[in-house]
Amino acid sequence: MNDPGRKTISELRDQCRGTALGARIRAQVDELTKKESTTGKPYWELKLRDAGDALTLRAWSDTDAFRTCADLARGECLEVEGEFAINGGFGLDAKRWRMRVLNPEETAELFEGTEEETAALERDYSDVEAAIAELADPRLKSLCELFLTDFGPRFRRAAAARFNHHAHRGGLLRHTAQMMRSAKAVCSAYPFLNRDLLLTGVLFHDCGKLWEMCPPEAGFEIPRGLTGELLGHISIGIEVVNALWRKLPVEEWSTAEPSSEDVRLHLLHLIASHHGELQFGSPIEPKTPEALALSMVDNLDARLEMITAAYAKQPEIAPGIHERVKPLNNASPVKPLAVWKTEPASD
Question: pTM (2 decimals)?
Fold first, then answer.
């Protein structure tokens, strides 16, 4: 994207803090709801989503945007132009904004993503592939390779969550790749951990989200379906591993130690226990070192992503202190301490 006036939603959040900015964004209609204010004034609430973020705008009845919204449908792609700013009550908002529907060429360009987004996605996928290539256990390595072969495109576009962390197209890949990097570091610090098992657990722990919250090939919305709603990603993930495992030539490793059945059961335990506690949705609590490590690495990456996002999304309630974030135990994120830099050498 070479147009300096066009921004992503995330760029707007970063650049509008403390100032208003005239800009254009391109995004997909995620939700469109007609509402009324407390005084009875009608308006449309329009939620837009791009590759990395979402934005909610309100089109009041005395604006051209209100009339345009009446003809919109969920899934349509728009360009919105206006004066964007961080509104203390609503977060990122816009004034005097107008919109138009994108033509097919512009829509295709939107889904391709920016050069930076594409490059980041490729780096993450390459890091996952590199981690799999390093696995020593041929059963786990073959299982991971089969997963990428069968489901690579879905894995690239799935979201890691619907609201709290990595809640966007490609979010699951970003979450998984960062967890892979963290898990490698943890294994270096604790060499008694089964590195192959832990890294495989990282790849598969959220794989059920490929069916619970995966945007379509041409879309940013995170749809809901019966499979995800009725089973949840943990149950789906266990079934995915079992289905792929049945495709492996396990008879070739009939004399291997540990046994193939033990490997399978330990991997399933990682998936089943990765939420850490029963109250958080795990059907079983972690009972092995690798299960404990996976749960903590998962939680670490999710929480660091949420607090980092909060600096951009949550309004400041005091200098350096942001509005509370419920998933972070209602903590108020505080601006982090800057990294120390050496003083410039004197002449």
Answer: 0.85
